[in-house]
């Protein structure tokens, strides 16, 4: 029987709806990954509603929970770690210490860092110290870095002038340490507005995926968290990076099609579950 990978997912959790672990855990389970959810916050709902109840996990709880898994002798079975939204650089450092501990227990474990910096139009912005921490500290330990365009711009300190420039900006991040950079959402002058584009760069390869652009009255939340989770999940299941990239794009598109068909603001993960596991569509990655 093939090994069922174990993935520690360090993200926010919402009671109602889907964001953070609330967007990533079920799809990961549905594709055959054992998820160890470590919830950095528990909120009633995602923050784009403008109001929520709940609490942030004290940063010292992150190493304590990881240490608890080590104490029962199971930490070496962790095959991968995803981290998402960080409340502070201190919380980020606690996560990196946990990742280092896991890599010591299992040197083959992979770390994907989703460098969440927020979306000005979604109203979610992180403190400047978090941006610096992500570039100066997290990128060095990450095997995969998954910025969106705004996060890529923030790392580069400028806006792109073209697709080739986006590639250059992503490749500049490779120098910081990750083996691959997945840009989850491209935006640059001259881009075809009918297409939604994602980019994957490694030391030797550059891949672009285009899929149809879907219009929403309000952009759903949690898509980035779903994207980064599925990508690492498929890598842990044995896909090469191109195959994981193509699978992720197709599965996320299936979720958005269902969400659009239901005229829902929240991602329709349960309704789309069979198509997450077995997307009907395939968007082939184009080599640049
Ligand atoms: N095919 C598509 N058409 C339109 N919007 C899309 C499509 N695929 C993803 N999106 C949107 O793009 C964003 C995903 O990219 P990203 O910038 O990583 O978002 P996030 O803020 O969720 O991290 C989400 O707002 C998502 O709703
Ligand atoms: C609690 C919570 N987690 C995660 C996110 C990130 O979601 P996304 O994947 O859209 O970046 C948000 C966005 O508002 C949020 O409120
Ligand atoms: Mg995001």
UniProtKB/TrEMBL annotation:
It comes from the Bacteria. Keywords: ATP-binding, Kinase, Magnesium, Nucleotide-binding, Transferase. It is an enzyme of class 2 (transferase). It catalyses: pyridoxal + ATP = pyridoxal 5'-phosphate + ADP + H(+). Residues 78-256 form the Pyridoxamine kinase/Phosphomethylpyrimidine kinase domain. Its cofactor is Mg(2+). GO terms for molecular function: ATP binding; magnesium ion binding; pyridoxal kinase activity. ATP binds at residues 114, 151, 184, 211-214. Its EC number is 2.7.1.35. One of its GO terms (biological process) is pyridoxal 5'-phosphate salvage. Pathway: Cofactor metabolism; pyridoxal 5'-phosphate salvage; pyridoxal 5'-phosphate from pyridoxal: step 1/1. It holds the Pfam family Phos_pyr_kin. Substrate binds at residues 12, 47-48, 225. One of its GO terms (cellular component) is cytosol. Homodimer. Pyridoxal kinase involved in the salvage pathway of pyridoxal 5'-phosphate (PLP). Catalyzes the phosphorylation of pyridoxal to PLP. Belongs to the pyridoxine kinase family. PdxY subfamily. This is Pyridoxal kinase PdxY. It comes from Zestomonas carbonaria.
